[in-house]
Structure formats: C-alpha cells, structure tokens
Amino acid sequence: MKVTDAIRADHRTLEPWLECLFREAARDKAPQPGWVKGVAQVLRPVVLRHAEMETRLLFRLLPQDERWVIHVTNEHREIERLLDAAADGSRSCLRHVANLLLGHFDEEEKFVLPLAERTLPAAALEALGRTWAQEAARGR
Ligand SMILES: [Fe+2]
Ligand SMILES: [Fe+2]
After folding, report:
1. Whole-structure pTM value
2. Of 37, 92, 105, 138, which is the most buried if we count CB atoms within 10 A?
C-alpha cells in the first residue's frame, strides 16, 4: 500500500471518533471536565503520532515552500497546542481540535497527498507505505 493510502486509511479510522467528540463537546449539557480530560488524553497520542509519522515519512520529502505543505505543518503545531489544552480539561479546545482535524484531513487529502503522488515515484510511495505499516504495527 502506498503511504498516501495508509494516511487516508488512518483518517477514515479517526473521523467517526472526531465527529462524535465534536457533537458531544458542543452539546448544551456540557460534558464534565474529567470526561474532556480523559478523552483528550486518549486522543492526543494517537493524533500526534499520526502527524509525526506523516511529517517524518512523507511531508519532509515534499517541496517545503509549497503553500499547502506549509499550511498543514503549521496546523500540526496548532493541533498539538489545542490537544494539550483539551488534555488539561478545556471543552472548547476539544471541540475546536476535533473540528480542525476534520478539516485538516480534508486539506491533506485534497492538496498534500495528491502533491506527493505527483512528486514522488510510485515505488518510493510503496516503500514508505511498508515503513508506515511496520511502525504502526510496532505501536510507535
Ligand atoms: Fe496532518
Ligand atoms: Fe493526516
């Protein structure tokens, strides 16, 4: 599997959780800070690992002056900041980061992954996909 398809598959796995969190965090009957903290503390390592792997295995191989590469890299920093705040119990940050991530996945899939597929040879994308799968299986 190409690394770009592995990234898409990760997005598909995370999306239903993010949609659920966004709805829950937005409800009139606000979830308790303990619930926000617990959810954010589970979500944080999963999302940060995904972002770290896509940066290290793929995005660093793309033109670093390309507008969408710069944009998603900046969003990774914002996502980390919001996840930290949510893990401290901020419901608004949990809601915001869930929504931001859904848009972020969409932008990566519309602009960054197609750029990678145009820029890098298919064999390289396949080799990176194997590395992605090995690292994902190791859980680190
Ligand atoms: Fe990302
Ligand atoms: Fe991603």
Report:
1. 0.94
2. 105
